[in-house]
Amino acid sequence: MPEGGAAIEAQPRRDPGRSGGNSGPTPRGALGATVREFEYKFRRLVNEYVAPPKSETKLSRFLRETESMLQDQEDLPARDPHEIMKAMEAKAGLFCARMAAMASLYRTESRFGLYHQRVDFPQKDDLNWRTRVILSPEPQGPVARKERP
């Protein structure tokens, strides 16, 4: 007890699962993930499997690991406009990360310094790859094609 005999009332700790001034815990989707957990998971997977140095094994594993997240993203919960925005950002981030992994998997060479360093294809190949890779999102999955500059 402090001097004067008055007890200090403990302040409740802020729950990291809560956002802003909303009351109650952050809602979880059908599979039990919050938006924050979903985003953390896919960012961790990007850092582990898509960041250089790249390889077919790592890129393919990323695509397999995130395949189930495509269904999970449909059930991301949100209770206010801010959480709706965060859920939309997480969905867009997953989409972009998967497209980047597919483009990296398609380009079988190393180019652009560390940005696209493939350990399974360590050399630059100007004869076959001095071109752009363009991915087109299609209902059955992205389609990659080369286009000369």
Key phrases:
Methane Monooxygenase Hydroxylase, Chain G, domain 1, 149 residues, mainly alpha, single chain, 4 helices, two-stranded antiparallel ribbon
Molecular structure report:
The protein has helices at residues 35-49, 56-72, 81-106, 126-129, and strands at 132-136, 143-147. It is mainly alpha-helical. It has a single domain, classed as Fumarate reductase/succinate dehydrogenase flavoprotein-like, C-terminal domain (Methane Monooxygenase Hydroxylase, Chain G, domain 1, Up-down Bundle), CATH 1.20.58.100. The longest helix has 26 residues, at 81-106.
CATH superfamily: Fumarate reductase/succinate dehydrogenase flavoprotein-like, C-terminal domain
Helical proportion? 40-55%
How confident overall, as mean pLDDT?
Answer: 81
Looking at CATH, which topology would you report?
Methane Monooxygenase Hydroxylase, Chain G, domain 1
How is the largest sheet built, in terms of strand order? 1-2
Computed CA radius of gyration, to the nearest angstrom: 22 Å
Task: Return the CATH class.
Answer: Mainly Alpha
**CATH architecture annotation:** Up-down Bundle
Low-confidence spans: 6-23
> How many distinct beta strands?
2
Element string (H = helix, E = strand): HHHHEE
Cα-to-Cα separation, first versus last residue: 75 Å
Structural class label: mainly alpha
Please, how many helices?
4
The biggest sheet, with number of strands, parallel, antiparallel or mixed sense and barrel status, is: 2 strands, antiparallel
Integer tally of domains: 1
Give the amount of beta strand, in percent.
5-15%
Which outline best applies? Answer: elongated
